[in-house]
Amino acid sequence: MARVLLIDKDPALCQEVRRALLPLEVEVFVASTGGRGLESFQQHRPDLVLLDVDLPDIGGVDVCRSIRSASPLPVLFLSARDDDRDVIAGLDAGADWYLVKPVAARVLQSRVAAALRHRGRARPERAPVERYGDLVIDRVAVDVTLRGRRLSLARSERMLLFALSAAPDQVFSRADLMAVIGETDAEANPRNVDSCVKRLRLKLGESRSAPGFIETVRGRGYRFRVRQDGGTDG
Fold first, then answer.
1. Same domain for 167 and 83
2. What distance in Å separates the CA atoms of residue 40 and residue 12, rounded to the nearest whole number?
3. Are 8 and 32 in contact (CB under 8 A)?
4. Strand partners for 138
5. pLDDT digits (tens, 9 = 90+) for 24-42
6. Domain endpoint, select from 75, 90, 118
7. Are residues 67 and 110 in the same domain?
8. For the chain, how long is the longest CA-to-CA vector?
9. Structural domain tally of the chain?
10. Range of the domain at 46
11. Whether the predicted model's global pTM rises above the 0.85 cut
């Protein structure tokens, strides 16, 4: 049975998509945020991804880039945005199709069925490994090594690193990263993000006073910095 990963924050839309795909007899996994979507992608190894542009943490375009860096599987945007710039950004990020909501059930069925029939044919296999100097991130194997040594990262630390590195130089606010590390309760403390960053930096051999990959942007949040030669700016 083929597996489809749907990443969309709208529960009603997710139910509609599930119903639309019933005749295809596929298994559908749903994630409501970009961070959870990337985690589900790593866990379930889907055959196709349906993806919204507007997500509450990581933008859909950046999620698409991250998925595309690890796999040639078909990616289809389902978005309410119909501006040419959004469509071009989605396709440039590696998506195979861009459909504007609302999409008729039969149209969605047809597109998904065609994508599943032809999955893997259009794109050459790409290495799932990203190298940033001495830091190596393997999103498919869910593995991180530094100077050849495998890092033992907690789930929150790994998801934070994966989210930041999926969009180098993009600043993520604490609110963005709270969703990534699973701090979604109303009483969750934003400072938990700072603690997670501190632990991750320690394992990467850096600190706030001596930043490497993880840079603090005062008053805004954090970002992942990469030099042109593949190392870090720090």
1. no
2. 20
3. yes
4. 129, 143
5. 888 899 999 999 999 889 8
6. 118
7. yes
8. 56
9. 2
10. 3-118
11. no
